[in-house]
From TrEMBL:
Annotated compartments: Cell membrane
Transmembrane domains' residue ranges: 7-29, 71-93, 113-134, 162-182, 216-239, 269-291
CDD domains in alphabetical order: TM_PBP2
Domain ABC transmembrane type-1: 70-290
Keywords carried by this UniProt record: Cell membrane, Membrane, Transmembrane, Transmembrane helix, Transport
UniProt entry tagged with the keyword DNA damage: no
Name of the molecule in the record: Sugar ABC transporter permease
Alphabetized Pfam families for the sequence: BPD_transp_1
Any one biological process term the GO annotation gives: transmembrane transport
Matching PROSITE patterns: ABC_TM1 (PS50928)
GO CC terms of this entry: plasma membrane
Similarity comment: family membership: Belongs to the binding-protein-dependent transport system permease family.
C-alpha cells in the first residue's frame, strides 16, 4: 500500500506544480534576468550585470517612492486594523450577553453589509469615485460642503503635503470592510464562555476588548498586518488614477509600481525590471520581519 502511494502523490501534484513553475516561477526568473540587461524591447537584451541596480541606488525617484511606502506601511495597517477591530467588536461583542450568547450592537447585521460594500468595487472604480469626492471646487463632495459652510476649498490631491494622505485615506476606506469581516470571523471562533466569565468578574467593554478579544485575535491581526503591508506596496491603481500626473504633484505620491510603469512606458525594460526586483525583495523582507517581530506564543482555549 505504501509502495503505491508515492506515485499517486507525484501524479496528483505534477499538474499544479507544473502550472506554478510555468506561470509564477518562470516569470520571476525572467524578470531577474531582464533586470541584469539593457533592453528596450526590440533588439536582443544586452547583459550589463548590476548596472541597473547601481543606477537605482542613485535614483531620487526610487528613494522618494520607498519613503512613501514607508509612510503607508505604518499608517495603512495601523489605521485600518484599529478601525476594523473597533467596529468588529461593536458588531459582535459590545451588545453584551443576550439569550446566552454574546451579541453586537443593535442593527449589527445591517452594518456588516454597509461596511463590506466597498469590497464589491474594484480599486480603479473607487479611485474614480474619489476623484469626485476630492474635486477642488464646489462640484466636489467634500469641498462643496465646505464652501457652503463658508470655508475655502481644500486641494486634497493638488497639495504635495496632503496628496499622499488623501490617497491613504481612500485605501483605508476600501480595506476596512474586508478586515472587519475577517476579525468578526475570528471573534466568532472565541468561546462565548470566556466573555461570559469575564463579564461575571466585572469586566467592562474596554477590559473585554484589551484583555480578552485582542490577545485571542493576535494571530488574525498578524495576518492582517502582513496583507495590508503588501497592499501598501501595491497601491498602483489608486495612485495612477487619483494622483496628478501619475505620481504627482512633484512626485509627492509616487510609488514603486508607478515608477515601474513609467519606465516600461518609455521602453526602459531592464531598469523597470530592476525596480520590480527591488519591490519583490522589499515586500518579502517586510512580510518576514512582520511575522518574526509579531510572533507570540499560541494561546490555548
Amino acid at each position: 500500500m505504501r509502495h503505491g502511494r508515492y506515485p499517486f502523490i507525484v501524479g496528483f501534484l505534477a499538474a499544479p506544480i507544473t502550472l506554478y513553475v510555468v506561470f509564477v516561477i518562470a516569470p520571476y526568473a525572467q524578470a531577474f534576468y531582464i533586470s541584469m540587461t539593457a533592453w528596450r524591447g526590440f533588439a536582443p537584451p544586452r547583459w550589463i550585470g548590476f548596472d541597473n541596480f547601481r543606477k537605482l541606488i542613485d535614483d531620487d525617484a526610487f528613494w522618494k517612492a520607498v519613503s512613501h511606502h514607508g509612510i503607508m506601511l505604518v499608517t495603512l495597517p495601523l489605521v485600518t486594523i484599529a478601525i476594523a477591530l473597533f467596529f468588529a467588536f461593536l458588531l459582535n461583542v459590545a451588545g453584551g450577553a443576550r439569550g446566552g450568547t454574546m451579541q453586537g450592537v443593535w442593527g449589527s447585521k445591517f452594518y456588516r453589509v454597509v461596511f463590506f460594500f466597498p469590497q464589491l468595487l474594484a480599486l480603479p472604480i473607487i479611485a474614480v469615485l474619489f476623484q469626485t469626492v476630492y474635486r477642488p471646487n464646489s462640484s466636489g463632495l467634500i469641498n462643496g460642503v465646505l464652501m457652503k459652510l463658508g470655508f475655502d476649498p481644500v486641494g486634497f490631491l493638488i497639495k504635495p503635503n496632503l496628496a499622499l494622505w488623501s490617497i491613504i485615506a481612500v485605501l483605508v476606506w476600501q480595506s476596512v470592510g474586508f478586515y472587519l469581516v475577517l476579525f468578526s470571523a475570528g471573534m466568532a471562533s472565541i468561546p462565548k464562555d470566556i466573555y461570559e466569565a469575564a463579564e461575571i468578574d466585572g469586566a467592562g467593554r474596554v477590559t473585554l476588548f484589551f484583555r480578552v478579544t485582542l490577545p485571542l485575535l493576535w494571530d488574525t491581526i498578524q495576518v492582517a498586518w502582513v496583507y495590508l503591508g503588501i497592499a501598501a506596496f501595491d497601491a498602483f491603481a489608486v495612485v495612477d488614477v487619483l494622483s496628478v500626473d501619475q505620481g504627482g504633484p512633484d512626485g509627492s505620491t509616487t510609488v514603486l509600481a508607478e515608477e515601474i510603469y513609467r519606465n516600461f512606458k518609455f521602453s526602459q525594460l531592464g531598469y523597470a525590471s530592476a525596480l520590480g526586483v527591488a519591490l519583490f525583495f522589499l515586500t518579502l523582507t517586510f512580510a518576514a520581519l512582520t511575522l518574526r517581530v509579531t510572533r507570540r506564543e499560541a494561546i490555548e482555549y
